[in-house]
Design goal:
Layout lengths: L2 E6 L5 E5 L19 E3 L22 H34 L6
Antiparallel strand pairs: 1-2, 1-3
Length: 102
């Protein structure tokens, strides 16, 4: 059930009312008790809120975003793999060299 925002033209009060979508809009102010002075405001709302486990912000990403993330992930992992190979090669070369005896 949504929460609707209302404004009273007589007393200037803004208030919220928790109503069913099928309920008619309020017309009487609960503060000043005047009749036919309240109108519903248009609001941005709170958006869609999922309650419970299993809902993540990344579940509904666009395919372009997923492709770019995958490409970035692959480029990072390939650069780290090549660095590891270079360091292993350097270690092997340093072990094969024998120090000169004086």
């Amino acid at each position: 059930m949504p929460t609707y925002e209302y404004h009273c033209d007589k007393c200037g009060t803004d208030f919220e009312e928790f109503q069913k979508m099928t309920d008619p809009p309020l017309s009487d102010c609960p503060i000043c008790k005047n009749e036919q002075c309240v109108h519903r405001l248009i609001s941005g709302g709170a958006g869609l809120i999922f309650k419970g486990s299993g809902f993540y912000i990344t579940d509904y990403r666009s395919s372009d975003y997923k492709k770019a993330a995958e490409a970035e992930k692959n480029s990072v992992s390939s650069s780290t793999t090549s660095k590891k190979k270079e360091s292993k090669t350097e270690k092997k070369e340093s072990k094969t060299k024998t120090p000169a005896k004086a």
